[in-house]
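Problem: given the chain below (608 residues), write out its structure.
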Amino acid sequence: MDLATLRALRPNRYTDAADGYRAASGMASTARERIDDEIARSLRQSLKGEAATEALGQLQALSGNFHYVQVECGLAATALDAFAHEMTAARRKLEAALEDARAADFTVGADGSVTYPAGGEESGGERPHGGSAAGLTDPTAAALGRQAGALDPNPAHRRAQDIADRIAAALQDATEADEKWAPKLRALKADDDLTVSAGDWTDAKKDTEGVLEGAAGYLDSLPHPPAHGTPAENAAWWTSLTDTQRADYLSVHPETVGALDGVPAGVRDEANRTLLSEARGRAELDYDAWLRAHPEPERYTDYFNPMTGTEMKGVTVESQAWKDWKEARDDARGRLGSMEAIEARFDGYADESTRPYLLGFDDKDNGRVIMSVGDPDTADNVVTYVPGTGARLSSVDGDISRAELLQDQASVVDPTHRTASIMWLGYDAPQDLMGDATDAKYADNARDSLSSFLTGVDTAHHGQVNSTVLGHSYGTLVAGETMRDHPDLPVDHAILVGSPGVGVNHAEDLNIPADRVWAATAKNDLVNLAPPPAGTLAPLNPKAYMRLFDDHSIMYGYDPTSDDFGGQRFKVADGKLPGSDGPMPAHSQYWEGASLTSMAKIATGGTP
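Solution.
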């Protein structure tokens, strides 16, 4: 970039363009919300049949397209803001140098060189000659230039060299910014079609990374979120930003904003839905690659009589090779299916009271998902369900369904108040009963995260909220440890079902009144057989084994349904017998019948 170009450049034109892209992003967001909240919802409520189903599918695709436009235009706006920021800095550096040249009565050439007049003390009847200084940006050359100026008896040489170097540095900064951002902005160009594919979302992730890398200097100039901030500090940071700063930070740091407790639910939802779309794109491409690498074998094969070894003419059975392939295929598609199930909820909710909010999402390792059914920032009641052993991204659909069932029942038992039901898989849950679930480390690692989340719900809420924590299975230990170790936690009620212990021996140790701690375990739930903590059974001391048969001691403290625990109990059905529908069917039946109704009553401040 030359001197004339930089002088003529107006960075505000790029910020104006950024505002235009930001407006386009906002319009795409508004269009997406109108499709989801009004058009598609009205269509689902009023029409049925194949035509309606086809129309809904097209509306969902259009909503996804608008979401993509929203994300890409947001990135373009941030990139233009960053470019304008860098060019503004370069232009200010140039103008400062030119002003100093004018003040010294120097002449600046079109190439950026600085001509200075004769000056200094006379020698032999003559004053030291004037000359011209060319700007130098190479460190070695610049050092030699400054040395030459220092040795010149004309002091104007030194000043002219300094100004020329500053002009050269400004031009270099502008050139580097131009060369950096030109390809990044070109990369934001979408495919010339009407379909937003998995590949497009994968590219969107790359675009985000490219803009984030290039905009580091600009983003550093913005207020940063507090490191390990409290929900209140996070909320204060978000409030302190301008609309432009919020939009720019959200476009390149959705993973940060989406995880900040205390930030409004709608903002976290927007950030995490971007992460979900990008992750789904990657998962879809990975699954397609798996299918190409593992062609489907023949499904059916001839049947041979196991007694005689002879072929049964006209009889076929599914081959073992196909069964193995199908099992592997289902496993390969597990995460993609779960992400599709999450996205389907945004396409299918009935009204604003059941609108889903994605408050947390991470597809790394076993995955983490936090979803609210209803807006927790405006609800009168908020119940946070913590799932237990086996909870992970690939099977999260069932846990979200439980939150939906509870929210629906809460609206029945308390129709005059709004209830938001949250499924909080914000931790790495143990994955097997006989191994991981016997170790408290998963709960130990989760309690601060759950405490921050619950405090964040209270911080972001627009008024008073009745807060309930619902733990199931190992999730009761997570809930118990969290309440035990955070005495000021904004929690009003606790519900503990199918519990192996909650990390305390008495309800009062959970730091809320004991009569607000409710527990239930089905008669046929095998968690009733949970033993005392490992290491307490001495092989040579028979009396120690009596603890297996008392009425209160289980794996992680006293049984919360025992008299010794001191809390409240509510009735649940006996549940199915072990082995009648899987190994532990009763352990998963708390979201049915009278049990579900009782939990809904507790969550809305009532009594079962």
